[in-house]
């Protein structure tokens, strides 16, 4: 009988855990900061370890400034941490894409249509540039349209190379850099500027424009980069993308020059058309066929996938310069696979989307090849974007921006199945970190007030954050209704904010804290509380009597357990519970189970 009772209690405890949120409060944590790169432990957060978490409770935690890394939940102590992190969101139905975001969508479409080409690993790039067939025997009359196509192609490759440089930190991400222009060099003006028989066909002076933009922006870390250096860096990023169409790229005194690498016919030489090798032509017609590509987007539950892990390793090593031994399978699972969220299947009654609520991976496949994975949480009110990793060979497609646009569109489409699902959460916005400001380009957005947890228009919050890194935003919330009569408050906002950030460090909402596993957080000796008042600690404490305590498989309210503890234990536990209520709020503290063993 006793054994049966024990089994029943264990089953009851297990069932409760599968339906309820169970957390362990790990208290204040100090760590090094991935945003300002401080040498000391200046990042201060409060942490929870979640054994299980309902999607409704996690939604409520997000709306109080929390975020998760695997099963570890953390919230910045905004007044104390070095880089205050504000939760940022956007109502999907109100989204207005910027010019740059529209360009990203068009670039992807051109790539899929076959009019934008790139060399993929272990594959020969399609040598066709035009959307029509290109023949080696085309007449001189068709040379000009084809020359324009080549120029557009080369301009795109330089822009892609510039994006890759920005992602690697070689150029700043918080100023508007010029778009590349390429000019055809007329036969009468060509000079043999390279050894061998190569002829100069095209040239770009983009390096001079970039150097001038850096000087105007007074970027002290980058002003030493002269046009010659910039041309060399850009050329190194696009060399593989041009060789496949019969062109050789070389920097020359600050210019980026493109030379012929093939023996050309007289007609080709006159037109400036790159020669096309016979090996890449059709054997019976001598024409090159455009290859159209397919894009497939798959949404799957968060589970380990070897192909995803291989892509993650490649991304972390090449983009974030992690060492191979640092990117382990176990750390990957802790960071991006493990999730405390309790899956909620679709009920078919317009309260849950067809995919359900929970943690998901959104895969992007081009011609069946996995090129990007978005790690997301789908919750009752939002899609919360957690991380994105992508194939560095496809950096020219700006997959971070593209995936964000797809996720926003997914929210719009899902509202017919789940009307409450209206928002797109981009993680944390850190105004003091230039690499994180790209999130403000998804407009119109709002930031969460760190004290009263009200949402405040970004247009208002920006001017406040320009002056001070930590601001109680809701103090100024009334300005939202007066914004129309305060033109100086949002001057130059609409396009400047959208265009100021050509690309982002990790493209899609990534937090530096998220790159660390929970073990990177160290205990802090600084347990200083609020400013001293005339009230005693006991008088300052909140009511903790209704908090549900998880102890040895039992779940009881603290008021029913209080007498089971000695005086010292009771005093210590109530101090901890008081801090817990402060960071999660009264409603959540009485809804989630506070586990102590």
TrEMBL record:
It comes from the Eukaryota. GO terms for cellular component: cytoplasm. Residues 516-529 have a biased composition (Acidic residues). It catalyses: an N-terminal L-alpha-aminoacyl-[protein] + L-arginyl-tRNA(Arg) = an N-terminal L-arginyl-L-aminoacyl-[protein] + tRNA(Arg) + H(+). One of its GO terms (molecular function) is arginyl-tRNA--protein transferase activity. The keyword Transferase applies. Residues 31-101 form the N-end aminoacyl transferase N-terminal domain. Residues 307-449 form the N-end rule aminoacyl transferase C-terminal domain. Residues 1-22, 122-145, 264-287, 516-536 are annotated as: Disordered. Its EC number is 2.3.2.8. Residues 12-22, 125-142 have a biased composition (Low complexity). The keyword Transmembrane does not apply. Keywords: Acyltransferase, Transferase, Ubl conjugation pathway. Belongs to the R-transferase family. This is Arginyl-tRNA--protein transferase.
